[in-house]
Amino acid sequence: MSRIKAVFFDVDNTLYDTAMQVESARRNVVLAMIEAGLPVEEKVALERLKKIVKKYGSNYRFHYDRLMESLGLEISPRIVSAGLVAYANAKSAYITPYAETVPTLIDLTRMGLKLGIVSEGVPVKQWEKLIRLGVQHFFDVVVISEDAAGKTPQLFHEACAKAGLKPSECMMVGDRIDKDIAGARKAGLMTVLVMTPRYSRIKPKDDSETPDYVIRALGDLIKLIEDVNPKK
To answer: pTM for this structure?
Structure first.
């Protein structure tokens, strides 16, 4: 077994609670728009907004315009702007790292390991998350895919190459077996699944989605690496 020299992380729901942030932000948006004059009940507006985000994708720029149109209303710059400001404020309030994120990154750095990010999405938005979390300076390698194919083995090979290491010398830590584990295993990395509530019930379809290790929280990673790394 090769000695692990680098640890790559997913961002969303691995370094921080993305699901909670999104739900809270959407509720704040709806309440702000209603306060600004949107003539609809909170529950109705929230459900309609969720459907619009699902239809157009999370990176679409005009969710709130489409929300008003879907309710048969003329687009109001005031109401739309209230939603935009509420969302921006919610990001500042709710994008905070898990309690064990920063201490774990510090410990891994002290162990002499290279750290990296392997993520997907709009690069500017993913970088914004890292900066808002205050963890961007920990990472030697950041690889972000905008490709619809997501986290392919090629993406992990790119991350390994940027770290100057073989895949067998790298570990991937994430919360989703279909995105974080499958691609990394096919690429030859060691894989670790963090059992967050959102995806904990999803089971591997086959060996390609079966992680090498499962941990309950990021803090468990330190002992795991000490156990799997050959003693010098």
So the answer is: 0.86
Top-tier CATH class for 6-16+97-228: alpha beta
CATH number of the domain at 19-94, out of 3.30.1050.10, 1.10.150.520, 1.10.8.60, 3.10.20.600? 1.10.150.520
- Nearest-CA neighbor of 13 among 82, 72, 101, 89? 101
37-46 pLDDT per residue, tens: 999 999 999 9
The answer to whether residues 128 and 149 touch, using CB atoms and an 8 Å cutoff, is no
Where do you find CATH 3.40.50.1000 in the chain? 6-16+97-228
Residue 144: its H or E element? strand 141-145
Q: pLDDT of 54-103, one tens digit each?
A: 999 888 999 999 999 999 999 999 999 999 999 989 888 888 999 999 99
pLDDT of residue 118: 97
The contacts found for 208-217 with CB under 8 angstroms, 24 or more apart, are: 208/182, 209/177, 209/178, 209/181, 209/182, 209/185, 210/177, 210/181, 210/185, 211/177, 211/181, 211/185, 212/185, 217/98, 217/100
Phi, psi of 192 (to 5 degrees): -135, 125
Give span(s): CATH 1.10.150.520, the chain: 19-94
DSSP classification of residue 97 = B
